[in-house]
Amino acid sequence: MNSKVIVSQLGARMHxxxxxxxxxxxxxxxxxxxxxxxxxxxxxxxxxxxSIRPQALRRLVGRVPQGVPPERxxxxxxxxxxxxxxxxxxxxLTERTAVEIWxxxxxxxxxxxxxxGGARAVFGYSGECLGLLKAARAAGLRTVVxxxxxxxxxxxxxFDQEQERFPDWENRVGVDDSIAEYNAxxxxxxxxxxxxxxxxxxxxxxxxxxxxxVDRCIVVPYGVGPRFNLAPKKRREGxxxxxxxxxxxxxxxxxxxxxxxxxxxxxxxxxxxxLCSISPKIQAxxxxxxxxxxxxxxxxxxxHYQWADVFLLPSICEGSATVVYEALAASxxxxxxxxxxxxxxxxxxxxxxxxxxxxAIAQAIQVLARDEELRLSMAxxxxxxxxxxxxxxxxxxxxDAFSFEASYAAV
Length: 411
Hints:
This protein is of the alpha/beta class. It has 2 domains: 5-223 and 391-402, 3-Layer(aba) Sandwich (Rossmann fold); 226-387, Rossmann fold. The protein is 42% helix and 14% strand. It contains 15 helices and 13 strands. The chain has helices spanning 17-24, 55-61, 77-89, 93-114, 130-138, 152-165, 177-192, 201-209, 254-263, 280-287, 301-307, 322-329, 358-370, 372-387, 391-402; strands spanning 5-8, 28-33, 73-75, 121-125, 142-147, 195-198, 217-219, 240-245, 268-273, 291-294, 310-313, 334-336, 350-352. It has a 7-stranded parallel beta sheet with strand order 3-2-1-4-5-6-7, with helices on both faces. The protein has a 6-stranded parallel beta sheet with strand order 10-9-8-11-12-13. Strand 6, helix 8 (201-209) and strand 7 form a beta-alpha-beta unit. The longest helix is centred in the N-terminal third of the chain and has 22 residues, at 93-114. The two termini are 22 Å apart.
């Protein structure tokens, strides 16, 4: 089936993997997005020498859908700038949720008004495509929504539990009107979709907990491109190098990174790359045992994988964290949790530890620090597992899902 598909996405999700794959298959009608570095006035910033670009500008210039011709892309840069301003002003989960609701509604309407061309199907991401899905169904198109994380009700539940455990880390929120509104919007997206894609069984099970349409859920694990492929390497002298990439905060399990760093002091050194959403007091405490690098452009991520001996992501609630796929491709043993929606094989290419268990994390780190033969064997296995989750295999899984003939059972 080669019917054309419209892809609607805010930001550079998975480095534009879905539109790139669909274009390579000859199936991309159009990519709609907010801002990218290959379209409109943002292209001008590419002429600025990298050495003098501010970090925010480097991130913008790095938003390039490689392999997708500019004529297949429609952007809404003015809207994108307003989104960035509103996101920067949002300090709490409540405020961030309100911004997400606003941006999803506006973006969805912009895309729907732009038309469907010769498309037979539309693909959008949860929280940002309700109006588009409704308009597409009314026009007789097939509709697909990617549930990028567990439903917001589940995320909020986990977040509240973490705030009870660590009240000083982030501003307290609790359930409020904006989160309830987001829950309703997600449920409406599921109802408007012919297929709900889930990156992991964890997401599918979370949708079931929310009473969602499990019979229309297809589990499609992700894939990453070859830019992250690194050969397995022996570790350097000194402490084991442990890397975490992702927003520093409660949902990503950052308190357990700090606890594990304290438990393995002298054995391992820790680096965290990602935006910090925690209080200044906690940030100061965390930085005493962890090297906090802040948010970095996508173009700089590879050097951090090159630095590391082990990758750690003890998230409390995810969809299917793409950084884990990247770490496997970089031949890094991965320590993670079931709630990351992981493809890591426990004891083969890493360790899958229970959520909220710093002792289990520390124990895994100690084993890998002591046994270089085991760590190197896991690194080789990680690279092998990553080949099952490259873009080619992800493209096949997506193609099956877009055929609308795939089995709806979880894999």
